[in-house]
Every structure is written in C-alpha cells, then in structure tokens.
Design a protein that fits this description.
Layout: E1 8-9, E2 23-28, H1 32-43, E3 48-54, H2 57-67, E4 71-75, H3 83-93, E5 98-104, H4 108-116, E6 119-124, H5 129-140, E7 146-147, H6 148-160, H7 165-173, H8 177-187, H9 192-199, H10 203-217, H11 222-231
Parallel strand pairs: 2-3, 2-4, 4-5, 5-6
Antiparallel strand pairs: 1-7
Helix pairs in contact: 2-3, 3-4, 4-6, 8-10, 8-11, 9-10, 10-11
Length: 237
Amino acid sequence: MHYGVDRYIIPPVGSSFDSGGTLRVLVVEPHPLLASALTRLLDSQQDLTLCGVSRTGAEAVADAQRHQADVVVVDFELPDMTGPAAAALIHDRVPGAAIVFHGAEESETALFDAIDAGAIAYLTRSATADKLLEAIRRAGLGEVLIPVSLFARAIARQRRTVADSLERKHRAAIFTTRELEVLRLLGEGLDTITMAERLGIAAHTVEWHVRHVIEKLGVHSKLQAVIAGARLGLIDL
C-alpha cells in the first residue's frame, strides 16, 4: 500500500495516551481489499491493536463506542455518509478518540471539513503506509499531521475571500504583542516548554496566553487557533 510522499505540519496539541501502552485502533473502510491491507498492516505492529473494522459510518459510531477506540482511521467516502459526518458523530460519542483520515481528497474544502469534524490527521492518497502508522501513533499522543502543501493552498484561498483588509487589522488589534508571539510559535509547532524558553517566560504564563488566544479567536483548540490565525493573516505557515 503506497500513496507517495508529502510534507506534514505536526503542531503538538497535548497528550491523550500513555505511550507505554497499546493503542486500540478502529478502521472504517468500505473497500474489502483496502480494509484487508490495513488489517494486515496494523496486525504487524506490536504497539497497535486492531479493535474492529467498520464498513459504514453508522457501524463506525457503534464500534467506536463499544471498543472505546483510541484512534479511528476513517476513509473519506463511506456508503451511508461522508467521512467527516461519521467523524463528527464519533467525536461526539467518544470524545477521547483521535480521528485519522486516510486516502482523503486533495481538496481544501475537504481538509477543513475534516478538521471541523474533529480530525487530528489528514492523509491524502499520496501518503505512504509508514506515514499512516506515524499518524496513528502521533494521534494517540494528541499530535496532528496535516499536509503542508494542501494546508497552504487552503489558507491562501480563504485569505482571498476576506475582502476587507480592515477586518484583519481590527482582529489583530485585539491581541497583545505577546499573544501574537505565542500564536506565531504555535504555528511553528512548538510545545509549551519550548515556547517558554524562546520567550523567556514561565510555562504556566505561556499556557495563560494560549488560553487567551483561543478565546479571542473563538475556537476550541490550539490546532484551530493556528488555522484561524493563518486564515486571518495573523501568522504565516
């Protein structure tokens, strides 16, 4: 199974899994041949446990709840609903499950649909099997993998839709200089400790600024803050 090569951004968003254990992985894949390939791939990994294979979105929601999956690997197109629709339902029912899309479209709209549905990784058809395994393991640690080239195109297109540059200036004006610095460092994928060292302030102060940035942008996570900041032209990725 080989999809090609791409470069990914990996901003840390916290840790939801103890790396000393085994990740329970649910595969949501309607195509028998690909489902079989993914099953063999996961069965060959000592630190990953395949807890089920779902063929539809409805099955995926039920199976994710039943197995309390740590990571759910979702195909973008399912027989009964879209992958993002299934991901949103899984995210609501099993908030601790990390959602990884694989074989996804090379589409800016599809990327943001996936992120809005709670996806933590977005692997296009160019992703390799090794990249999928990396995405699953990183997802278990609360980290994010998103293709840089696709993300950059999506951000550029969304910026062009903001007709009035005064809106950006107004948004930027509500942030302090330190908050904008923290937002830019989040965009570089730095963790709290590294940001604290870079800025010469305490880690808890960094977290305080991060909370304010998230609140002012009206989002719910560090990843969404990076995306919102890039959309508004506050940071460059």
